């Protein structure tokens, strides 16, 4: 019977940790331990953790701030499990999660796995719109975790697991921020370990609660892709340039009336058609006009913020190395 070690780095999110731990108490497979690694928070979650000491096999650590990558390493070093599982602190875990993972690993040899994310029924319309945008193929989100992804599957740290052997050989994360999970996944694959997607091992991922927070997060993601290219130049692919093309196209569109009103009209129709497609697709999936409307804003925010982050960090790399 596999023992799973759940490593959760936390920074100033006691309420979210409460929801996450509560969801873990309902697991149908319960052979797991939980390691909470408080990363120098000023709003500590020790009192929240104390509520669950009799309900979960739980250990709490407080350490100076070092970023989420190195905080995960801190947990890896102290974990006892056969598989080390990483969740973001803003996730809610469905009750079948570990049972699903364990059955899948019985039938498939994987050294590292990842799972997708979904929107929970309790999420606000904005959170559901952000979740739609981050998982929609129209915004490139659906490319990240689908079966049809080209090449080996790259797990992401909001929902992933690695064998003890993977940790022992990789020594965990080499960087703590700015694309640390991408770099980690690439290195796992390059060392010959087998990775895979477990589609039914999904989590409910809150991400951000407002579009302004979402903008900051995606701006950071755009910068992170450039940061990864400092280690792996070949990891900037066409799909990562699509938000950049969108962003530059958006700016250029407003210069077109000076050149040609016809070209401006064509460009405007293309933009309106694209976001119309997103609206109707989001409505078909969510059955909500408010979520569909907010999904248009979330999709624009995702593409534009990622594009700006990519361009600014790319310029910094070009000029400063």
Automatic annotation (TrEMBL):
Protein's UniProt keywords contain Kinase: no
Coiled coil (UniProt feature): none
Domain Glycosyltransferase 2-like residue range list: 5-159
Residues passing through the membrane, by range: 238-256, 262-284, 291-311
A Pfam family reported for this protein in Swiss-Prot or TrEMBL: Glycos_transf_2
Keyword Cell membrane carried by entry: no
InterPro entries: Glyco_trans_2-like (IPR001173), Glycosyltransf_2 (IPR050834), Nucleotide-diphossugar_trans (IPR029044)
Entry keywords, A to Z: Membrane, Transmembrane, Transmembrane helix
Protein's recorded name: Glycosyltransferase
Organism: Fulvivirga kasyanovii
């Amino acid at each position: 019977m596999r023992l799973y070690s759940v490593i959760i780095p936390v920074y100033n999110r006691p309420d979210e940790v409460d929801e996450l731990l509560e969801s873990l108490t309902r697991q149908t497979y319960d052979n797991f331990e939980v390691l909470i690694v408080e990363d120098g928070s000023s709003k500590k979650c020790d009192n929240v953790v104390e509520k669950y000491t009799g309900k979960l096999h739980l250990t709490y650590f407080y350490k100076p701030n070092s970023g989420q990558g190195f905080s995960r390493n801190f947990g890896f070093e102290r974990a006892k499990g056969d598989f080390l599982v990483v969740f973001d602190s803003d996730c809610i875990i469905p009750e079948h999660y570990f049972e699903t993972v364990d059955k899948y690993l019985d039938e498939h040899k994987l050294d590292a796995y990842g799972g997708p994310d979904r929107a929970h029924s309790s999420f606000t319309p904005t959170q559901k719109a952000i979740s739609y945008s981050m998982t929609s193929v129209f915004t490139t989100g659906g490319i990240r975790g689908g079966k049809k992804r080209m090449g080996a599957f790259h797990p992401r740290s909001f929902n992933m697991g690695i064998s003890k052997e993977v940790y022992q050989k990789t020594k965990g994360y080499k960087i703590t921020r700015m694309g640390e999970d991408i770099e980690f996944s690439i290195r796992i694959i390059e060392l010959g370990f087998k990775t895979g997607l477990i589609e039914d091992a999904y989590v409910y991922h809150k991400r951000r609660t407002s579009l302004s927070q979402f903008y900051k997060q995606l701006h950071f993601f755009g910068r992170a892709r450039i940061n990864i290219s400092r280690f792996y130049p070949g990891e900037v692919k066409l799909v990562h340039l699509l938000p950049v093309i969108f962003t530059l196209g958006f700016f250029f569109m407003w210069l077109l009336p000076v050149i040609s009103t016809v070209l401006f009209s064509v460009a405007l129709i293309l933009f309106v058609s694209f976001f119309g497609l997103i609206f109707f697709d989001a409505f078909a999936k969510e059955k909500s006009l408010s979520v569909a409307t907010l999904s248009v804003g979330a999709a624009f925010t995702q593409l534009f913020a990622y594009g700006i982050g990519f361009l600014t960090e790319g310029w910094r790399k070009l000029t400063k190395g």
